[in-house]
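Table S4 entry, glutathione transferase.
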Amino acid sequence: MAPIVIYHNEYSPLSSSVVLLAKYLKVDFEVKKIDLLAKEQLQDWYIKLNPQHTVPTLVDNGFVVTESKAILAYLANISPKGSSLYPTDPKKRSVVDSRLYFEATTLFPRGAQLGRPVIYDGKTEFDQKAVDNVLEALGWLNDMLKGKRFVAGDELSIADFAFVCNVLNFYNLNAPMDRFPEIKRWFQQFKSFDGFEEVNQGSKGLAQILKKFLSPSLMNFDSTLARLSSVSDFISNQFYLIRTNKFQLGFDFASSKSYSKMAPITIYHNEMSPLSRSVIFLAKYLKINIEIKRIDLVAKEQLQDWYIKINPQHSVPTLVDNGFILTESKAILGYLINSVPNGASLYSTDKKKRALIDSRLYFDATTLFPRSGVLVRSVMTGATEFDATIKQNILEALGYLNGFLKGNKWVTGSDLTIADFALFSTVAMYFYLNAPMDQYPEIKRWYEQFKSFDGYQDNVQGAQGLANFLKSKVTKGF
């Protein structure tokens, strides 16, 4: 049978993680290098495969998967050796998913924020705040590994492959890894893996590129790691920056609501967070027995010791189910569908359909939601109008989503999935921000379908409240 094709660049830790896993699983695959410096990813033939023009991209006999974590899951699902790396037990799998989303939305973006200003903006030193953010994320990873052989427990999983290629970059950039003994212990286990030295060479190449731009005396990784101050408390995975204690959404939200009569799952929630709203929306649609406990982000309740004990990243949402704790909204969505009989249809077990759902979930997690977060953050830090580049990036992401929906009732095809709930909750705000949604007829058609869903009104009320706040702070909107 024709081999799987992986479009790859050795400088990308996301791409390298896929190649490393494929070699570990002994998958029959062919690597085709994409020369990012020569902008090969912008050629028409590649954009037809991957409109976001990123690496990696997988092609399996005409079936195309983008988003590295979705590709990792797909490779595990199609390989006989892969089942142990991505367990079917709902709780074990949800922990793996939570780690994957942590890497995708926290550790990797923080690492990228180190290098981007050096390569593209001419900086000759790492920004100190970016360094501290990386070290904080590594600290969280170190804590995840305490008492565990691998990142999700005692068994190797696809999450380990995602992390190791990212962590490798920090070793090659002379980060103070002695601060993180659990990471060092965990990392040593991969040095004998087939393909490790190959991805290490790619990582070293990236480090050498960065070092060419950096002043030798300014490799300032060695900094004091401090908790974010009151001026820079981030809401929901660091994207929403609060500078005032007068944030008002314009409506009241009860501190605790429950649905159904059985012992409920507890969801710690804040209505301004689209990530949090997506979880509540899905739970209500599935009629899951939940109790909502509101976290007052403005009052910094997420930084209280009791909350940090259950969620060290102090983000929302957090799920607690009879002592089982889960963070990362997309992992929670996946867990919820396993809680009820009617959830299975929303997260297909068909390998290719599941890969598309995962790809759309990661698109929201790593592209659409972060770009939305940059917009909100700019206003929270004093902008009086929406920056043109920020708007352009958001409209580009909405264009990608509009493209996904062409010819499809829902974001992955003819069936509603958990990816629709995630993306709807991010998109909803733009309908109240006077964004030019008429440019996206497929999104408008798709959006209309949710209006009859239980939980729709609560979701859009949160989106509208956040939009109204933003509009009150700017003199010129979209």
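The chain has four domains: 4-78, 90-238, 265-340, 345-472.
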